[in-house]
């Protein structure tokens, strides 16, 4: 990436390191990604705070710590092809796209999807395929995936997602309603091994109808 790191983005990366993020590549991506471009101008002054912020339509850009943590977990398996469910602002997609060869991302709110696509284009990030659709069903025609990241909380683990994992693939997903756990599911042949990572708080993953 030839983008310059701003002082604010560098400081955010440093604070994530202090908060326990150790993957250098993830911290580099945070330092080189202008988070203010993923927010309305009125919220730009808060862009480098380690908090989730509203992006319209009742949705949020995730907390930078959570973005970094989920990315770090996902990169452990060195994935080539990754699926993100819940494009939202496109910030998580921009971080991931700098770290993996191929990213596919699905969003069920059309206006968010259009804005996210424009933002990544402006940043000259070209290895991302966007889909407007119900990510509860994954994106079957592009699969199987070495890794899948869901950035909204599912009431239960969608079987379409585990089915779209390649052998050895990893799904990182917040699960639960009032209380949510970040869960990592690894596919080993026809078996799935689940591991709870930490307590999290995400907007809900909608099952079914499009916005
Ligand atoms: N990764 C985003 C986080 C956005 S919040 C970011 O970096 O900004 C979660 C997003 O998931 C919302 O935009 C919401 O519309 C979307 N979402 C919820 N249910 C979905 C579904 N079934 N399919 C696709 N997207 C979904």
From TrEMBL:
<keyword id="KW-0808">Transferase</keyword>
<feature type="active site">
    <location>
        <position position="62"/>
    </location>
</feature>
<keyword id="KW-0963">Cytoplasm</keyword>
<dbReference type="InterPro" id="IPR029063">
    <property type="entry name" value="SAM-dependent_MTases_sf"/>
</dbReference>
<dbReference type="InterPro" id="IPR000682">
    <property type="entry name" value="PCMT"/>
</dbReference>
<keyword id="KW-0949">S-adenosyl-L-methionine</keyword>
<dbReference type="GO" id="GO:0004719">
    <property type="term" value="F:protein-L-isoaspartate (D-aspartate) O-methyltransferase activity"/>
</dbReference>
<comment type="similarity">
    <text>Belongs to the methyltransferase superfamily. L-isoaspartyl/D-aspartyl protein methyltransferase family.</text>
</comment>
<dbReference type="GO" id="GO:0032259">
    <property type="term" value="P:methylation"/>
</dbReference>
<comment type="function">
    <text>Catalyzes the methyl esterification of L-isoaspartyl residues in peptides and proteins that result from spontaneous decomposition of normal L-aspartyl and L-asparaginyl residues. It plays a role in the repair and/or degradation of damaged proteins.</text>
</comment>
<dbReference type="Pfam" id="PF01135">
    <property type="entry name" value="PCMT"/>
</dbReference>
<keyword id="KW-0489">Methyltransferase</keyword>
<protein>
    <recommendedName>
        <fullName>Protein-L-isoaspartate O-methyltransferase</fullName>
        <ecNumber>2.1.1.77</ecNumber>
    </recommendedName>
</protein>
């Amino acid at each position: 990436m030839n983008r310059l790191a701003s002082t604010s983005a560098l400081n955010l990366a440093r604070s994530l390191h202090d908060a326990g993020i150790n993957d250098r590549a993830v911290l580099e991506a945070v330092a080189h990604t202008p988070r203010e471009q993923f927010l309305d101008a009125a919220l730009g002054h808060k862009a480098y705070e380690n908090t989730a912020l509203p992006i319209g339509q009742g949705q949020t850009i995730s907390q930078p710590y959570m973005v970094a943590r989920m990315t770090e977990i996902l990169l452990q398996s060195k994935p080539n092809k990754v699926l993100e469910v819940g494009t939202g602002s496109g910030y998580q997609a921009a971080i991931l796209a700098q770290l993996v060869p191929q990213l596919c991302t699905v969003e069920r709110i059309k206006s968010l999807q259009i804005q996210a696509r424009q933002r990544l284009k402006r940043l000259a990030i070209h290895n991302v395929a966007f889909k407007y659709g119900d990510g509860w069903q994954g994106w079957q025609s592009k699969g199987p995936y070495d890794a899948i990241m869901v950035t909204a909380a599912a009431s239960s683990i969608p079987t379409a997602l585990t089915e779209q994992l390649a052998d050895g693939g990893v799904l990182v997903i917040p699960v639960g309603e009032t209380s949510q756990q970040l869960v990592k599911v690894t596919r080993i042949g026809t078996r799935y091994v689940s591991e709870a990572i930490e307590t999290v708080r995400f907007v809900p993953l909608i099952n079914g109808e499009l916005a």
